Structure formats: structure tokens, C-alpha cells
Amino acid sequence: MISDILIIGGGAAGLMAAYGAAKTLPDARITILEKMPRPGRKILFTGKGRCNFTNTKPWNEFSKHIRTNPNFVKPAFFNFTPDNMIDFLERSGLETIVERGDRAFPYSHRASDVLDTIVETVLRQGVTLLTECEVEEIRPGFEVRCSNGETFKASKLIIATGGLSYPMTGSTGDGYRWAEFFGHKLIPCFPSLTAMVPRGYKISGGSEPQMKGHINREIPMTGAGEVLKGAKLKNISLTVSYDGNVTETEFGDIDFTDGGIEGPIGFQVSRKCVKTLMNGGKVAFSLDLKPGVPIEELTERVKALWNDIKNDPRTRQAKDGRGINGKEMYRILLGKLMPWDLIPGFQTWNPDILETSVKKNEFRSRRNAPQRRVYDVNLELLAKTLKNWKFDIIGFVGYERCVITAGGVSTDEIVAKTMESKLREGLYFCGEILDMDCDTGGYNLQCAFSTGLLAGESAAKAINQNEL
Length: 468
Prior knowledge:
The chain folds into two domains: 2-191 and 405-467, FAD/NAD(P)-binding domain (3-Layer(bba) Sandwich), CATH 3.50.50; 194-402, no CATH class. 32% of the residues lie in helices and 24% in strands. It has helices at residues 12-24, 59-62, 70-79, 82-91, 111-124, 174-181, 223-228, 263-278, 295-311, 313-317, 326-335, 343-349, 379-387, 443-462; strands spanning 2-8, 30-33, 54-55, 96-99, 103-106, 128-130, 135-139, 143-146, 151-159, 186-192, 196-198, 232-242, 245-256, 261-262, 283-288, 354-360, 371-377, 389-396, 404-409, 427-429. Strands 1, 2, 6, 7, 8, 9 and 20 form a seven-stranded mixed beta sheet that branches. Strands 11-18-15-12-13-14 form a six-stranded antiparallel beta sheet. β1 (2-8), α1 (12-24) and β2 form a beta-alpha-beta unit. α3 crosses α14.
């Protein structure tokens, strides 16, 4: 099959490349080759299935969330801004909404609506989309051979195969091999925006040999991990120490999941954490559950709450008049200091706060007096732990469930204004295959859409109209 523009990969970048090419050159023959049964499967996982498809921050703020070279992304961003992306979806019939943190979602909060809208819009432009068409080989002259025996040839080739994250969606790193075939340099890849695994969270504490620090998400959790799983903390402070030196503090929300510590600020710090662990360094987290309260004030507040509980008539009258013991009072106290679903995990991970001793019951004869447990709460230690809950981080979830792949095709060898290779005329790259990764919050998808559209437009403009 002969095409004018051939696009390998039907994800966010590839679909937008096809749209950009078709809008620029309506008569061009444009073909997308997608290895999976359905295009854009990774889009369905974004925003926990709600699809945070862009972030509306202006460039001077948006660029601060690009972890690689923002100047490379800048031409693509201004060529197709977050507002342009919102307008693209709404003109195609999809209502959108902007929420906290300038994050844009479909109004339905269904990622499938975003994907369906993009695919339908691309197909209306006359683009040929071939699924279950896995590319096995690229030959000189942009001749492509697929696993089903079909061959394709084009004057312009766009590689938009994504990275290594979520391999179930088809991202298995194929494009890196072809980039090297054309002589491109690869920046070493590693998982980013991923769960960080504390010591004692998983049954196996060792990392897998193929990637130092990698602890597969499928490894079973310990009992201590299970009691934390599902807890969500809002408006806390996370401080990260690398090799014993405090270097990073973030404020926001985290989640405890079956993978480890995730959520917005967990993801925010994960990039540097992963690199440190892969290089044999040490990482430690400190959670401040009360970042707005100084330790002295918090200690007094904890003591005051404890006295209120002790002196509450309901405390003394409970248990058939014998009163509530210290263990139960401690749980009541924690309920006033943190979400209820966090209490079992907090107690499990910080057992020293509740001190236990055994005494004889003074109301029985000394000789036959049974022993009873007495519980006492170390209130000062509780306050300190609320301000400094420590976790040693021993690993991370790998490509099997990370959000984005860091590293990839070096952008030094790509023309930022066109996405064309500096080494091979007519060859373009876009999306996650590039050494281009961002924070969580819609930034990565917008970069994929922007670089994809620019690659498609550039390839179309480069085609001589007389060749059509």
C-alpha cells in the first residue's frame, strides 16, 4: 500500500498527527498503523479513567512542569495550545470542564468519550486507520513490513509508538529500535510518575535484577501494607531525603494503593526517586499530616484532646461503668486527628505510640489476682509522628503501571519547529517516544497532542503538491 504519510502508532500523538496532516493537506493519503485491536488505549487509563486530557496553565507556568527541555516543546505548544485542544474537542461535540489545578476533563468524566471523539474526528478527515497491524521491520525508503505480511511505503514517516509504560496498551518500546535504525541517540529510559514502595509494604523486599529498585506491582502486599491500602491523605506535606540529605518538599495529596505511595505529590517526586534508587542511592519519605501547625502547638492540642476524652462522662460510664481503656481512648483520639480509614494503618506502622504494660488487678486478693493490660499513649511521640511519619523507600513500580516513560529519542536530534529528524529527511517523531516527560496533571497528554499535531502538519507541508 502506498501512502503519502505513514504514521506508526495510533495513540494520542499518532492520532493528532493524522488529524494535523489531513487538515493541512486534505488530498493526502494518510495511514495509521496500530498494533492493538483498538487505537488510543492508554488514553483510557488517564486521570483514573476520567481523562485529564490537558492543563490550561499559560506557558510560563506550564513549562515549569516539563522535566526535560521545555524549550524543545515550546514551538509545538504555541502551535497547538491547551485552549486549542479544548476547542478541538468541543467543536467535535464533546463538552469539557476545567477543575482544580487547571486540569481539563470531559464533562462526562469518561475517558472513552475523549478517545471516541478524537478517533471519529480523525476518520472524518479521510484518514485510513488499520488496527492489529504490528510493524515488524522498517526498510530504507520508508518501506514498512507488518507481522501480517502487508507492506506499506510512504514519502513521509511519523513514528509515534509511545514509550514503555503500560505495555498492555501496546507500548513496548518498538519505536526505540527503529529510531536507532535511523541513527538516532537514545537517552536511557526509566519509569516516571509511578508508585514508590516503602520497606515492609510488599512481601518481597528485594528488587528485580533487570532494573535495580523495580518491585513489580503484582508482588503481594504484607499485612501492614494491606491496612494502609486505600487510605487517601489531603493537604499534607511530603519531604524527600536522598542519601540522607533533605532536598525536596511538596504539598498536596497522596494515596496508598496496592502499588505503594502514589497520588499527585507521590508522582511528583517519583522521577528523582526512581533515578536515585536505580543508581544505588537511598530514598526516605517524611509525611507531615499537619503542615499548618507547629510541633509545639500540635503537642498541646493533642494533650488537650486527650484530656477531653479522659474527662468525658461517656468515657467513664462506658463498659458497664468500668470505663473505656486506654487503647479505645487512643482510637478515639486518632479519629479527631486523621481520617478514620487511616487509623488502622497509622497504628500498625507506628506501634510505639501505644505503650502496653501488665498489672495485677488490685480489686482481687493478691494471691489470685489476675493480670490485666494497661495502655498508655505517648502523646508527645504521637505529635512528633503526625509531623514526621517516616518511610524508607526501597523500590518503585515499573513500566507495568507507571504513567509515563522518562528518556527516549534525544531531542537534540529533532527540529523543534517541525518534529523532523535532523538525521533523516522525511522522518518525524512525536509523543512519549521522545525524551520529553512532565509532571502529572494533564501536561504529558498535551505535549503528546501538541507534538503530534505539529509533526503531522509539518509532514504534510513538506510534501510537494505535484506529487499528489
